[in-house]
Amino acid sequence: MLNWISRFWRTSVIGSFLAGLLFLLPIVLTVYIVAWIVDFVRGAIGPGTILGTLLTRGGSYLAGLSNQDTLAFWLGAGIALAGIWLLGLVVKTGAKHAIQDYLDRLLARLPFIRSIYTPVSRVVRLATDRGSGAPGDLSGMSVVSCRFGGAENGVDILSLLASQHVFNIAGERRRLVYVPAAPIPMSGGLVLVHESAVTPVPEMKVDDLLKIYVSLGALAPEVLPGAIAAPAATPQAGRKQEPDLAEPSLEGISGA
Q1: Element at 227 (helix H, strand E)
Q2: Helix axes 111-128, 96-107, angle to 10 degrees
Q3: Is the residue at 27 inside a domain?
Q4: Residues 177 and 165 sit within 8 Å (Cβ to Cβ)
């Protein structure tokens, strides 16, 4: 009786609870992530922060609101969003590079600010400036396959050729390759690979490579070029050939 109760508890009660928990887990995680983002934004630009105080003062100054901080904050936030939208219209007209170059020159004159702004701006442009042809444009890189561990038993890693320049390391020609990481491609690393171990994959785009790493390989059959993603021979087909190879030997033995 006790064994039956214990088995019923493990299979029916706990099993059903875990099944329901796993079913709700994606929804719970989604709600948790959204709540975390809202709390992060509120802590960064909400009332009481430096940026939130600026928005509140701006809304109070423009609307003449003296004792209504909440209304003044939302008014200032609305004005800031409208200003960002107008800036986006100006940037889309083709003035992006002129404004960007002016800001780069202006902030480069500030000793402490430029040490923070320069690397941050390069990382942001690396991830956002697609197809612009500008230095650091991620789409300007090409997809390559790097062989590590030897020609026969080595492994191939899909990577990005970070530079067309050939580096000479200890008398050997090396290529600078960026190896992404999954599921966050931007958390990879740069390696200098022997030129003979780098094989271009011209049929593949940079966005397709990033999709593979972000999806942990789940989208590989859909994204990889047909020559790479071609299905291998099934094990059943290989086993069917074995009787054909064995039958002649058996007939030879019986005839002898």
Answers
A1: none
A2: 150
A3: no
A4: no
Highest average pLDDT, of 7-16, 200-209, 231-240, comes from 200-209
Query: Number of structural domains, the chain?
Result: 2
Using DSSP, state whether 57 is helix, strand or coil. Answer: helix
Task: Verify that 149 and 199 share a domain, yes or no.
Answer: yes
Tokens of 14: 């706990």
Bond preceding residue 183 cis, omega within 30 of 0: yes
* Residue 37 CA to its chain's centroid (Å): 19
- Amino acid letter, 43: G
Global pTM reads 0.50
Task: Tell me phi and psi for residue 243, to 5 degrees.
Answer: -60, -35
Rounded to the nearest 5 degrees, what angle is found at the Cα of 82, between the Cα atoms of 77 and 88?
A: 130
Helix (H, G, I), strand (E, B) or coil at 218: coil
Q: Domain of residue 112: give its range.
A: 94-139
Mean of the pLDDT values across residues 160-185?
91
Residue 243 has pLDDT above 60, yes or no: no
- pLDDT beyond 70 at 15: yes
Under a CB-based contact definition with an 8 Å cutoff, are residues 213 and 183 in contact? Answer: yes
pLDDT tens per residue across span 135-171: 445 666 889 999 988 777 789 999 999 888 999 999 9
